[in-house]
Write a structure and sequence with these properties.
Length: about 130
C-alpha cells in the first residue's frame, strides 16, 4: 500500500474515532422509576403503516429483544412527523430525544461538517441518541 494511501486511511480512522468518542460523551439517561404506572400514548395507523414500521425495526439491535406484542405497543406509540427538504432533523451536539423511521425521502448525515452517510425509505436513525 502506498504511503499516501496509508496516511489517508489513518486520517479517516482517526476522524471516525474522534466522532465516536465525542458521541459517547453525550449518551446518558436518568434512572427509570418502574414503580409508577405508565400509559404510553397511542396514535392511529393503518395496517400497512404498522407493517412498514415493524419491518424497519426488525434489523435494529435496540428492538431485537422485544416480542411481537411489545413491538406493537411501541409502534402504536410512534407519532408521524415530517420535515421539509433541506431541514436539519438532528443537530450534532444536541441532546436527542427521538427515534426516526424514514417513510419517504433521503436523509444525509454529517459529522463535523463532513458527509458520513445517508439513508432513505425503511431506514431508521436516532437510536444512539436515546
Amino acid at each position: 500500500m502506498k504511503a499516501a494511501n496509508v496516511e489517508t486511511r489513518e486520517q479517516t480512522i482517526n476522524m471516525h474515532s474522534r466522532a465516536k468518542a465525542q458521541r459517547a460523551q453525550n449518551v446518558f439517561a436518568q434512572p427509570l422509576d418502574m414503580t409508577e404506572d405508565f400509559v404510553a400514548p397511542t396514535y392511529p395507523k393503518s395496517n400497512e403503516a404498522v407493517q412498514f414500521i415493524d419491518n424497519a425495526l426488525a434489523d435494529n439491535f435496540i428492538f431485537a429483544s422485544l416480542n411481537k406484542d411489545e413491538r406493537l405497543h411501541l409502534i402504536n406509540a410512534m407519532k408521524a412527523d415530517s420535515a421539509p427538504s433541506g431541514a436539519v432533523i438532528i443537530q450534532q451536539g444536541d441532546i436527542g430525544d427521538y427515534f426516526y423511521v424514514v417513510e419517504d425521502g433521503h436523509i444525509s448525515f454529517a459529522v463535523d461538517g463532513n458527509h458520513v452517510g445517508a439513508c432513505s425509505r425503511g431506514a431508521t436513525f436516532g437510536e444512539l441518541a436515546l
